[in-house]
């Protein structure tokens, strides 16, 4: 199985920490040069810690330590013009863009989160994906691969009407369902050009988006101030395989597969990296 990315360039959003950083490192290990972008500030409604400038710089250091080139830009994916500028800068620097990983996302949680969190989350997690693909698309050629980050929440009905989870969770579920539909329809449109579009749908991934007080309270509502240790077993209840959380690296392996020639005839797929969490679900809204 050929997963070499030698000579290729990947454009990755949300690259300052978590899954985005993991994807940047894994694709660099496979030989890709990296365009890494992140907002590098805290969105007010987000209940988890977001990356800062030092985090994005650390991602760049880790990529260069692997012997690959990297270009970083501080970009808010909600601002299409800024994403376009980053894509143009990356194409000018490296001469090409072959891979898009539209990964940036937020997940505000809790009943006390303000209603604008619903719109903030959709703007980042869905509109940001569309903005990213739109910005990079003029630089893509036949053989290019687009990978969008969804979530197991995209394929569940339980988050949209849950007062305890709040408007941010409803926005998250709405956005991730939108990503599934966008991937399916974009794959149809881009196939004649030889450009593939797929999604990865992670389960409970061990990142700052999961490991925070707001998330602990959602998973352990029976406790007034649950800790990480309290929540860990509850995270695992969602999974069918015996694991509480999934490492970002495991999602990155799926992203590498979808970015590489090993999946050259795979497009429009909704690849679940969820430890079997969705096996028993019958409410999936994913396109066929």
What does this structure look like?
It is built from 8 helices and 7 strands. The protein starts with 8 loop residues before the first strand and ends in a 15-residue tail after the last strand. The chain has helices at residues 18-29, 53-64, 80-94, 116-136, 166-190, 213-219, 228-237, 248-259; strands at 9-13, 33-38, 70-74, 99-102, 145-149, 196-202, 270-273. By secondary structure, the protein is an alpha/beta fold. The longest helix has 25 residues, at 166-190. It has a single domain (9-271), classed as NAD(P)-binding Rossmann-like Domain (Rossmann fold), CATH 3.40.50. Helix 1 packs parallel to helix 2 (53-64), helix 1 (18-29) packs across helix 8 and helix 4 runs parallel beside helix 5. It has a 7-stranded parallel β-sheet with strand order 3-2-1-4-5-6-7, with helices on both faces.
> How many domains comprise the coordinates?
1
Task: Detail the poorly predicted runs.
Answer: 282-288
Give the ordered list of helices and strands: EHEHEHEHEHEHHHE
Strand content: 5-15%
Mean pLDDT: 94
Largest sheet descriptor? 7 strands, parallel
* Distance separating the two termini: 26 Å
Short summary:
This protein is of the alpha/beta class and 288 residues long.
Short key terms for the protein model shown above:
single chain, 288 residues, alpha/beta, Rossmann fold, 7-stranded parallel β-sheet, 7 strands, 40% helix, disordered C terminus
């Amino acid at each position: 199985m050929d997963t070499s990315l030698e000579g290729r360039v990947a454009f990755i959003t949300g690259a300052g920490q978590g899954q985005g950083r993991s994807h940047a490192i894994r694709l660099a290990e496979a030989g890709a040069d990296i365009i890494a972008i992140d907002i590098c500030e805290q969105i007010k409604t987000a209940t988890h810690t977001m990356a800062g400038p030092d985090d994005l710089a650390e991602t760049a250091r880790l990529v260069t330590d692997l012997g690959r080139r990297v270009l970083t830009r501080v970009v808010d994916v909600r601002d299409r013009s800024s994403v376009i500028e980053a894509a143009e800068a990356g194409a000018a620097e490296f001469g090409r863009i072959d891979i898009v990983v539209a990964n940036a996302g937020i997940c505000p949680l809790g009943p006390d989160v303000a209603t604008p969190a619903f719109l903030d989350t959709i703007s980042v997690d869905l509109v940001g994906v569309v903005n990213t693909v739109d910005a990079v698309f003029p630089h893509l050629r036949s053989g290019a691969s687009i990978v969008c980050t969804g979530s197991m929440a995209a394929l569940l009905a339980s988050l949209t009407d849950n007062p305890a989870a709040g408007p941010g969770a409803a926005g998250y579920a709405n956005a991730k369902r939108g990503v599934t539909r966008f991937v399916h329809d974009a794959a149809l449109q881009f196939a004649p050009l030889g450009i593939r579009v797929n999604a990865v749908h992670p389960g409970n991934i061990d990142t700052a988006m999961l490991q925070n007080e707001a998330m602990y309270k959602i998973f352990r509502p029976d406790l007034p101030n649950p800790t990480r240790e309290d929540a860990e077993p509850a995270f695992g209840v969602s999974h069918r395989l015996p694991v509480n959380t999934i490492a970002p690296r495991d999602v990155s392996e799926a992203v590498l597969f979808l970015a590489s020639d090993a999946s050259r005839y795979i497009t429009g797929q909704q690849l679940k990296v969820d430890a079997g969490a969705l096996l028993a679900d019958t409410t999936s809204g994913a396109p066929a």
